[in-house]
Amino acid sequence: MGAYGRRAAVTARIVTGMVLSMTVNVGCFSERSFRLDPRDSVALPESGLPEDGCSTREWLRRAHAQLAPLLPPGGRPPLLTEEISNGDGRAVDVFAHFGVDRGSLQNILRNLRGITYSAQAASREYYIHRQAPPWPGFEDIWIPIRLPIDLELSYSGRIGYARDAQGRIIDADCIVILPGLFGDHGVKRSADLAIPLRESGYHVLHLELRGHGQTEARYPAVTHTFGVVEPDDLIQVADWLQAQPHIRRTGLIGYCWNANIVLLAAWYENRLPDDPAISPALRPYYVCPVEPQKRRFEAGVIAFSPVVRWEVLMDELDRPRNRLVHPVYAAIQDTIRDRMVLKGWPSPSGNLRLLVSHESDHYGLPLPRGAAEGYPVLRLLPYKDQPATDKLGRARMPVLIVHGADDPLVPVQDAADLIASVSNRKVAGLILPTGGHVGFAAYAPRYYLSLIRNFFDPRTGPAACAAESAGSPAVVRKARP
Description:
The chain has helices spanning 3-25, 56-67, 81-84, 94-98, 112-121, 188-199, 213-218, 230-242, 257-268, 310-316, 327-343, 352-363, 375-378, 412-421, 440-443, 445-455, 462-465, and strands at 79-80, 138-144, 154-160, 172-178, 203-208, 247-255, 300-304, 388-389, 399-404, 427-432, 476-477. It has 481 residues and is an alpha/beta fold. Strand 4 (172-178), helix 6 (188-199) and strand 5 (203-208) form a beta-alpha-beta unit. The longest helix is centred in the N-terminal third of the chain and has 23 residues, at 3-25. The chain is globular, with a radius of gyration of 21 Å.
C-alpha cells in the first residue's frame, strides 16, 4: 500500500471512530424499544386463500403482495423464495441484487444503516441474578423438562394469555418466542413483539433456554448446547403447552442463533428414528421419541436472521477482533467473554469455539468427539468437506426464514444458499433490502408485525391453506468445492 493509501486508511478509521462515538452518544447504537401497535398492522382477507390449498411459498407471495406497501419507500425490492433460487438448487447473487458490498458489511460508514438497526435490536444487559422488569398482562412460570441424566431442569417462561372483553382467557394458539443467544426476559425486542401479539388474540410464551436468564440462575449445571439438545426441550415445551386449558396449537419464533434452534426444532419434530445427523453416541440423550401422528408447532415456525453457517462464524471469531474494523464481531466476542466469565471458564476470551467446547464438556455427556459430536445436528449447510442433511426437508409445519440484505453478522448469501437448497414447499424465504441483524422492527415496524400476525393467523395463515404432505426423508447434501 502506498503512502496515499495508508493516509486514506488512517483517515477512514478516524472518521469511523468519530461516527461511532457520535452515534453511541445519541443512542443510535444502543438497544431501543420499538412499540408495535396491533391497530397499525394489516390483516389479510380470508377470501384470499385458494380453496384447493397452497404451500407456505404461495402464501408468502400472496401475503407480501398485500403487505409490501407497508415497507419504507426506496431501495431494491425484496426477494421471495422462488426469486432467491436460480432453479437448480443454487441461490442467485443476492448481494448483486441489492447492490451490497459483502466486504463492507462491518464498515460503519458503508453499512451504517445495517449496523445501526442491528445495534438497536441487541441487548447488552443480563437478567440472571435479578428479575427482568415485568410486562403488562404476563406472568412468570416454570415449565418442567425431563432429562436423561441425573440433573433437574425447568425452563423459565413469561406467559401472557389472550382474553376477551370480560377478561376471561380465550381458546387460542400459543406463540413461543426465543430471544437471541443468551437473551432473556429483559430483551426489549421480545417484549415489543410479545405484548401486541397477546393483544392480537394469541397466547404468548417467552422462553429462556438452558444457559439463559433465570433458567441459568436456577440450573447453572445444565449448560447451553447451542441447539444439540434444545430441540428436544422445545418439543417437551410444546407438549406441556398443548396439555394446558385454552391452548390449541403452538407456533415458534426465534432470533439469531436461537433462530437456528427453531429451524432444528422443525426438523427434530419429524426426524427419522435413525436420522443420520444424530450419532449413536448422542441418541441416548434425547427424551422425546419419534411420533409421526403427533404434531407440534403446527401453527408454524419463523426464523429471523439465523446464523446459517455458524462454523464459519466460529472461524471468524477464533482471533480477537478490532472494535473499529469489525465492530459486530467485537460485540459478539464481548458476549462470549461475558459468558465465560459468568461460568468461570478458564482463559475467558471471545473465542466461540472454545465456549462451545467448555459448555459441552461441563454438561457431562461422555461423547467420543466432544462438542464436535453435535456438529452434524447443528449443521444446516455443508462446511468445507463436511456434508449436511436436508433437515428442512423434514419440516411438516409452515417455516419462514427472514433475513436482511445488509446483515453485518450473517452474510445474506448464506441464508439464500439455505433457502435455495430446500425443495420442501412448506419452507419459504424472504430477504428484505435492509434491517441488519434482527433489526426488522426498527426498519419496517408495520410490515414486521403484520407479517407475523398473518403468518400465525388460524384462518388466513399458511397452516390454514396447507395441502401438502410432510417433507421427504432426509438426504445428504455434499459439500461443494
